[in-house]
Amino acid sequence: MGKDRSGAGAEGSVGAVKPPPDRLYGRARGHTLRARQQRLLEVTLPRLALPETLPAGPLWLEVGFGGGEHALAQVRAHPEATLIACEVFENGICSLLSALVPEGGEAEAPLPSNLLLWTDDARLLLRRLPDQCLDRLFLLFPDPWPKARHAKRRFVHPAVLPLLARVLKPGAEWRVASDDPTYQTWLGEVMAAQTLFATATPATTRPAGWPQTRYEAKAMRAGRQPLYWSFRRLGGSSFEVKR
Predict the structure, then answer these.
(1) In what order do the strands lie in the sheet with 115-118?
(2) Residue among 22, 143, 179, 180 flagged as catalytic
(3) Strand ranges, E, within 8-123
(4) Where would I find the H helices in 78-180?
């Protein structure tokens, strides 16, 4: 991977939103970790660490994998692609790891060869990745940060789009899903004000090939309507964002 790089280009604004802070996420741990969870973090997690040299073949990235249901479904359905799954919440990381290895097998049980984990802010990884290396990007049910004063913490942000555009190949797909009305409106406004991605009307039912997450199931039980977007990285190298 290359050196740490910031996303160059105009940062734009929607509703005079402030630049994103150094850290987008809130807490990184919920309840106290059990002994099994602690061992997963200490022994299993390093076995899935991102190598210095990226693997060959299609490369996908999931930002915020939650409990890992979507990530595991994708790596099992697409052995030809390597998925880098990002998550900072330790309990979510443990949920994915516990689904991968049986108790007692933390150090030696086989792991998917096409799954890598990143457990820090995804933007730090994006700045390290080389240009046009990603074939697909997933952002499924991110924290909506619904209060206006927290809009700067939303991952879909005018200042983040150039960073995403730099690492996605022309024509690469960016899948986004959200059940939060505020975030849905925000997403529409942000994407209408940029020239990096081709936009389309979101689907109201989960498209084929989009494995369900626990957050989507929770939204459906609560009567909230998820929307599903599929954006395509436009060709060219311009990182211009409309003002």
Answers:
(1) 115-118, 82-86, 59-63, 134-140, 168-178, 227-233, 197-198
(2) 143
(3) 59-63, 82-86, 115-118
(4) 90-100, 122-128, 161-167
DSSP 49: B
* Single-letter code of the amino acid located at 128: R
- Residue 161 near residue 196, CB atoms below 8 Å: yes
| pLDDT tens sequence across 138-168 | 999 999 888 877 788 899 999 999 999 999 9
| Phi and psi at residue 225, to the nearest 5° | -100, 105
Distances 120 to 42, 56, 201 between C-alpha atoms, Å: 16, 23, 32
Cα→Cα distances 100→24, 75, 107, Å:
28, 12, 12
> pLDDT of 231-241, one tens digit each?
999 986 554 44
Q: What pLDDT does residue 146 have?
A: 83
Give the distance between the most distant pair of CA atoms in the chain: 55
Instruction: Kindly list the distances between the CA atom of residue 196 and the CA atoms of 229, 235, 240, in Å, as whole numbers in the listed order.
Output: 15, 8, 7
Does residue 143 have an active-site annotation?
yes
- Domains of the chain (ranges, CATH numbers): 26-55+82-129 (no CATH), 130-243 (3.40.50.150)
In DSSP notation, 173-208 reads: EEEEEE--HHHHHHHHHHHHTBSSEE--PPBSSPPT
First to last CA, the chain: 32
